[in-house]
Amino acid sequence: MNSKQASKTVLRGVTALGAVGLLCTLTGPAPLDAQAAQAAKVYAISPSDKAQGAKAHPELLAEFGGAVTGAQASYVEQVGKKIALQSGLSNTAGDFTVTLLNSPVNNAFAIPGGYVYVTRQLTALMNNEAELAGVLGHEVGHVAARHSAQRQKAAQRNQIIGLLGSVLAGAVLGDNAFGQLGQKVFSQGSQLLTLKFSRSQELQADQLGITYLKRAGYDPRSMATVLESLARQNALEAQLRGGTSETPEWASTHPDPASRVRTAMTYAGNSATGTTNRDVFLSRIEGLVYGDDPKQGVVDGRKYTHPVLRFGFEAPDGFFMVNGASSVSISGTSGKAQFSGGRLSGTLDSYIDTVFAGLTESDQARITPTAVEKTTVNGIPAAYGTARVQSSSGTVDVVVFAYDFGNGQAYHFVTLAQQGGADVFTPMFRSLRRISAADAGSVKPRLLDVVTVKAGDTVQTLAAKMAYSDARVDRFLVLNGLQANAALTPGHKVKLVTY
What are the protein's UniProt keywords (predicted)? Predict the structure, then answer.
């Protein structure tokens, strides 16, 4: 957890507004034709682009858990530079910086200056090198078509930057006005560079990515197959959450994602040819951490455990959690919450006051708790305050519950619920506890394992080896891009998730 970001609006609010990646939109209006896509003017990387990208790069690394290093990252970099060179932004591979991010979120994006990113989680979902090239080509296509510059101009006109409410308040009551709670205006850094694109821009980036695949000798149909895998993964995640509509915005899809898949396949051509390098890809990504990295804390159902910082808590029944580099988002139909931490330089009272102040926009009346009550939770000194806020959809209770972990370190929850409904979070507040060294040592990462199908292996027998207690078959099928009636071929390689 990044304690320096504790009492401020986290960058995840910006990501929720739409990372530059594939996940922004899974459908759109009538597709641009091939001629229009080819006619998109390409702008070479300029010195100002390089400066802008270099400034944003560290912020994005911090937001997405840092960079993965080693052979897997080198392979992704190699593929990324190969596809980026097809864009015309530069003829020099060294002008591109391709980063494999240590994030459990399915995402990819690019920013001006030659910076291209993909998370290890999205990489693990892919099934061949052409799909990886297609995703990275899609992101480079956004930059080549200057989409981010167009979105920045709109953002500057409308002052739409990142806001905590997009993660917390906005989804509680479906109230965009109350979503202004927690709004913070940032400088023109990584936030402006990662704003959501329009549907037509997403489709144009799909087509540019397919064009780059063809130029590089890859099978251009891979853009459609990776889009299909992403849509299926998002649907599976929604199913595992119990069908709730409270889907994190980075994972949102249109009800008909198949339309974008069909559009991509049509543009690629059903008879298209090219390499996929499937076995090479699988061998090079084997061993990637899948899901949460224990160094960033681990979500397991309703339980969150941080083995490095040595604490854990449980979300309320019926809620789900999304882990981030600097915070944990907790979502349910009756409320929203966020858990993060910060430096404790004074009392818990002043810490709580600072957190409330961070939820108030500069030109709005400051949100203050009616009182701050002191308590103890599992031997940890704690305090909490509640504020009642009027919104156009009704009255909402905002609670900040903070804990003094000693040595100048504090952690806190911020929760939002309809008036009188904050008690739903009481079990969560009371569940925070320190964990022993033995408990911390028992937390193991899940890893991507590539195995060769043997005679007699079936979907069911291999899925039984997945490191999950639920939906093993569904997880296995989606991870490998297989349908329910798939018959496995001996000698064929497939992915598993194991401890």
Answer: Hydrolase, Metal-binding, Metalloprotease, Protease, Zinc
